[in-house]
Design a protein that fits this description.
Blueprint lengths: L6 E6 L5 H10 L12 E3 L5 E6 L4 H7 L4 E5 H7 L4 E5 L5 E8 L14 E4 L2 H10 L5 E4 L15 E6 L3 H5 L2 E10 L1 E5 L5 H30 L1
Parallel strand pairs: 1-3, 1-4, 7-8, 7-9
Antiparallel strand pairs: 2-3, 4-11, 5-11, 6-9, 6-10
Length: 224
């Protein structure tokens, strides 16, 4: 457990969550500096310090209390099976996990996946989907470049993150089944002290205000 005082917030060091995570705190009036190669930074105007980590490590650090809060995609959170509180959906880094197959293969429904092998970096989310739908398929866990698996004969299908679908297309695949929707979420440790709970409440209050202002702006922009 880290000491009383600063609330510790884990955010992705560099990747698809980083920019919006940093922007969120800035919009909340919480200053944070990202020095080159620095892994930790203290805010100069709020009782907070930031840890810059790989996204996959964030749920575990928050569960253990090494960090009090974190920002991570729901896909990574659910796959991690860590026990943390989801304090707030943040509305950015939206994507989905989908099953895709070679473009020329026929597909009439999930039952067509029976007996197939599926390559993925999300074996738990995929396993859950398959068992809920009574599909018996073999899961091939690989950590990256999942979308090339069918073309090199490693698997019949893939289950991977899709946002626009262009990566699938350029690998000769088509999306046939969406299985999980994801966005960035603010997660919190289960046993925050009262002091840190109060800091979290302050942060949530500001996030809500920022989101409300953005919604209003959106409505105004559409009217004009
Ligand atoms: P790290 O090096 O930290 O492990 P990573 O390569 O695993 O990073 P990123 O590609 O940066 O992860 O993606 C981080 C998260 O952003 C994903 O887990 C997902 O929630 C979301 N995401 C992934 N791809 C997209 C996309 N194309 N559009 C929007 N959000 C996405
Ligand atoms: Zn990652």
């Amino acid at each position: 457990m880290n000491k009383e005082g600063n609330i510790r917030i884990a955010i992705q060091k560099s990747g698809r969550l980083s920019e919006d995570s940093i922007a969120l705190f800035k919009e909340c009036g919480i200053k944070l500096e990202m020095g080159k190669g620095r892994l930790k930074s203290e805010s100069s105007n709020f009782q907070a310090e930031f840890l810059f980590l790989r996204d996959d490590d964030i749920p575990g650090y928050v569960e253990d209390g090494v960090a009090d809060l974190g920002i991570v995609g729901e896909n990574v959170l659910v796959e991690s099976e860590k026990d943390v509180i989801v304090s707030k959906k943040l509305g950015f880094s939206k994507c989905r996990l989908s099953i895709a197959i070679p473009r020329e293969d026929p597909f009439e429904g999930p039952a067509d996946l029976d007996g197939k092998s599926i390559a993925t970096s999300y074996p738990k989310i995929l396993g859950q989907y398959l068992s809920e739908n009574n599909i018996e398929a073999q899961i091939h866990e690989i950590s990256g470049s999942v979308e090339i698996a069918p073309s090199i004969g490693l698997a019949d299908a893939v289950c991977d993150i899709v946002s626009s679908g262009s990566t699938l297309l350029s690998n000769g695949l088509k999306e046939v089944q969406k299985i999980f929707k994801s966005e960035a979420v603010l997660i919190a440790n289960n046993n925050l002290s009262d002091h840190k709970k109060a800091l979290l409440d302050k942060i949530l209050f500001r996030i809500n205000a920022v989101q409300k202002a953005q919604d209003n702006k959106y409505i105004l922009d559409r009217k004009s």
